[in-house]
Amino acid sequence: MRFRTTVTMAAGVSALALLTGCGAADMTKQASPFANARGAKTVTLSVQSWVGAQSNVAVAQYLLEHKLGYRVDTVQVDEVPAWDALSQGRVDALLEDWGHPDQEKRYVEDKKTIAPGGDLGVTGHIGWFVPTYLAKQHPDITDWKNLNKYASLFRTAESGGKGQLMDGSPSYVTNDKALVKNLKLDYQVVFAGSEAAQITQMKQFAKEKKPFLTYWYAPQWLFKKVPMTEVKLPAYKDGCDADPAAITCAYPRTPLQKYLNAGFAKSGGKAAAFLKKFKWTTEDQNEVSLMIAEQKLSPQEAAEKWVDSHPSVWKKWLS
User: For the whole model, what pTM was predicted?
Assistant: First the structure.
């Protein structure tokens, strides 16, 4: 989503297991050998670093390869550069976009180099969360107006005497620093470094029943392991986030979208038709994500297991 970042990874779904690669080259400066290949039964999918997006790609790749006979390549790239790569045909499809209105206007409406691929079927939401065990102890902590009252509970060595608001990677695009400033909260945004590092910290806090306040998002498999309760920020209204520096409202709920390279959308044959029809539920995505992140199955193994047990869902995508 626009609130996350990714780094390039080696081609192939097995690379999806490497969730925290670093120092890799920018995918927009290279091209997959399979993207936009004329006459070849190949598809190149853009995959983001968070596990829900990896679940989409793993299942799509499995079905494209095993049911439709395609060679599938995957590449990982930051979300905004991914739009450039999609426009240029370096990737054929992006299966989970959390909302990039500037890129949508530029590439879909103006240049017409990218085509909408339809709803993924999953609604995304970002917010601030505390563990449910803490919310039960202090019910009013779930209202942002009371956060300063509890700031001392969230102090850490990294938060400089203020309460800690835990974020993921420092390169994630979030509204959190502006929200803390504009809502006059006695908190410091502290970055865990990556989604994986953030999950590790939250699981450790939960194991010890310690307080924590974190930026987090749904759908996400971790809610099944660490129950969390959202802190209510000022209600989101259309346009309230137009000026990132002045923002004082919550994050929106976003129906997640798919996008295809416009040329691929027209001439991608059965693969393009399949990806347009690919639509599943939050529960489906979380089921695969849990197998990958918690049960430690490879994305390919998780995809195969899900495909074997949900034929009534995916057979509609092939018709």
Answer: 0.79
